[in-house]
Amino acid sequence: MVQNTRIQKTYTMNKRLLITIAMVVILLGVASVVAKYLADQKTPTPQSEKRPDTYFVNASAVKYQRQQVTVNASGRVTSTNMADMISEVQGRILGGDVLLKKGQSFHRDDVLVRIYKQDMEYNLKAMKSSFLNLLATSLPDLKIDYPGAYPRWESFFNNLDIDKPFPVLPDMENSQLKIFLSSRNLLNNYYNIKSQEEQLKKYTITAPFDGTYTEVMLEKGSVANPGSPIARMIRTDLLEVEVPVPATEAKYLSSGDSVVMKSDNTAITYLGVITRKAAFIDQNTQSQSIFVSVANNREYPLYQGQYLDADFKGRYLDSVMELPRNAVFNGNKVYTVADGKLVESLIEIHKFNETTLLFKGVEEDVMIVTEPLINAKEGTAVEIL
């Protein structure tokens, strides 16, 4: 009985194994049929034919015209006037209309420095009083000996005021009158007084322009001597920009040409004019300095030491054409197009710009390539875009 049960189990296991193998074989057969069917459905793609390279180029017809030369460069702002304020007299420095300090700004005709002058004024008044006394004692003799000149000298005497500058002496057309006045020492005293009046003016120093102090050597309370430097100042209302320009381009610029100046970090522009050109070339940079006068702007002021970009408008060139610089190769060669093929042509370059150049040398109406070509050579077939 036990043996029959074992036989029955073995039979059952063998049956299941056979069924599993049969199912695997059937699935493999179906997969093979499906794969063959899908493979048969594919349409073979013909191999693409290799087409020859075709060059398409940008080209323009050569047309010459009159063009103005432009030059771009940058330079540093400097003042048109730099002056040292030096004392011509001796005395203690007093206050002026503005503070005597580095960086202080001032305007034209402001009193910058006053130097103590009370002693000088008293001495001048004493000299004037002596002159008045001398002239008063000479008038009676003048009336008798020179009656024709007396009214002028009497009027001159009446207009004298020791608190004001003396007027000009009356005419002395008579040589005898000159001798008379000289013998009374009137002329010598008069010109000594006028000299002292001029000297007195030097005790007050006024600003010759709108400017600022860049350095102060003597401040309020210091004692100045003749020749003592008090301060150094620069003009700020009218500035100048020194622009180094390559000598090859400076030849196109002339005094009086207009210039547009602008700063790198602002959109503000300043109008300038070329005032002069240096008559020498810097041996290190091979550049020629162009000096541009620029009026300052109170709203957007310029400062000494600041850098500006300059766009110069120079003289005109006749019969030239503008071309991108990268369209030129080997220094002065370009490609032109003739009968659908590239032709190497020589050009005559007159002016280099930042990205373009001005040239001549190719006949008008010839198609000239305006872009760089890679792996191109003379004779290559091209089509113009």
Strand content: 25-35%
Read across the widest sheet, the strand sequence of neighbours is: 3-12-15-14-13-16
Give me the secondary-structure category.
alpha+beta
Number of strands: 22
Looking at CATH, the homologous superfamily of the largest domain is Efflux pump adaptor protein, beta barrel domain
> What is the CATH top level name of the largest domain?
Mainly Beta
Largest sheet: number of strands, sense, barrel closure? 6 strands, antiparallel, barrel
Query: How many structurally independent domains?
Result: 5
Fraction of helical residues: 25-40%
What is the helix tally? 6
Q: Please tell me how large the radius of gyration is.
A: 49 Å
CATH topology of the largest domain, by name, is Elongation Factor Tu (Ef-tu), domain 3
Task: Summarize the entry for a quick read.
The protein is of the alpha+beta class and about 375 residues long. Helices cover about 30% and strands about 35% of the residues. It has helices spanning about 1-40, 120-145, 150-160, 175-185, 185-200, 245-250, and strands spanning about 55, 60, 65-80, 80-85, 90-95, 105, 110-115, 205, 210-215, 225, 230-235, 240-245, 260, 270-275, 285-295, 305-325, 335-340, 340-345, 350, 355-360, 365-370, 380-385.
